[in-house]
Amino acid sequence: MEGLLDFVLRDVLTRVGGVDRCVSEFIRITGSLLPDKVFLRYVPELRNGSRTLAGVPVRAQLLGSDPVCMAENAARLAALGPEGIDLNFGCPAKVVNRHGGGAALLQEPERIAAVVAAVRAAVPPHLPVSAKMRLGFNDTGLMRECAQAMQAGGAAELVVHARTKADGYRPPAYWEQIPTIRAAVHIPVVANGEIWTVADAQRCREVSGCDALMLGRGMVADPGLARAIRASDAGQSGADTVAWDDLLPHIAAFWQLVCEDLEPRQRAGRLKQWLNLLRRRFEEAEAAYQHVRTMTDQRAITAWVSTLQGQPDSAFPKA
What we know:
Blueprint: H1 7-16, E1 22-28, H2 36-42, E2 58-63, H3 67-78, E3 85-89, H4 94-98, H5 109-122, E4 129-134, H6 143-153, E5 157-161, H7 178-184, E6 189-192, H8 198-208, E7 213-214, H9 217-221, H10 225-233, H11 244-261, H12 264-278, H13 283-292, H14 298-309
């Protein structure tokens, strides 16, 4: 999720628990061989065995449409030791689609197969190659063919965001389409889209037939969602809910990481972005968001964040 679920938020969310694996923001491949520093900028977990500090594996995601260039970059990335390589065939952004990347390739299954096959051949056999797709570009007419193309190219797993490119992120997600894709392939299929609550997760599994789920904005809005789903699976519904007070140390840790790792111009906006999504799940987040909504000064925000846990300002990096 470009501009949202970066390494900072991955670090914090995996501390909360319940997550099996993360996928990085997409690294766009446009025609040149990227230097190692670019891969490390997007996936600094590569310096830690491709794991977050909480020990959760991170799979690096590539986005591009040229098989040769994708293969060359995948090979260079593979040398850095990622947990696996994921290929993005789902991004709906106009700037990406205009250049033939992301969801635009869902109109050309044969090109999808070529990209996946080139990447699969370029990286070591032990390294998993997976793919993420939507139900289609403007409609679902080619969803089976696209899924089969990914499998034919060598993808070992397929994540399905149950909307077309034309649907964008508008509710609902069409989980009922996923069984058609599952029936068309023999690799594992993971369901994604509009999973905000434990009840959503249960319904998604029932409708899609998928055991595995990928959480996006729902996990950002409710960092305890993965834990809560696991508790529900164990028959302990509500036993592992993360309350607002439980989340405060993680908000403080997030702000500290933002101040350490991001450019000054990005810092205030990242905190507001997360608090804005947290409002969907926590009443207390509304007051927090309104408090910082117009703030831009890092020192003032740091002073406010420090009050959340009663920490002195000196515990945080200075502007």
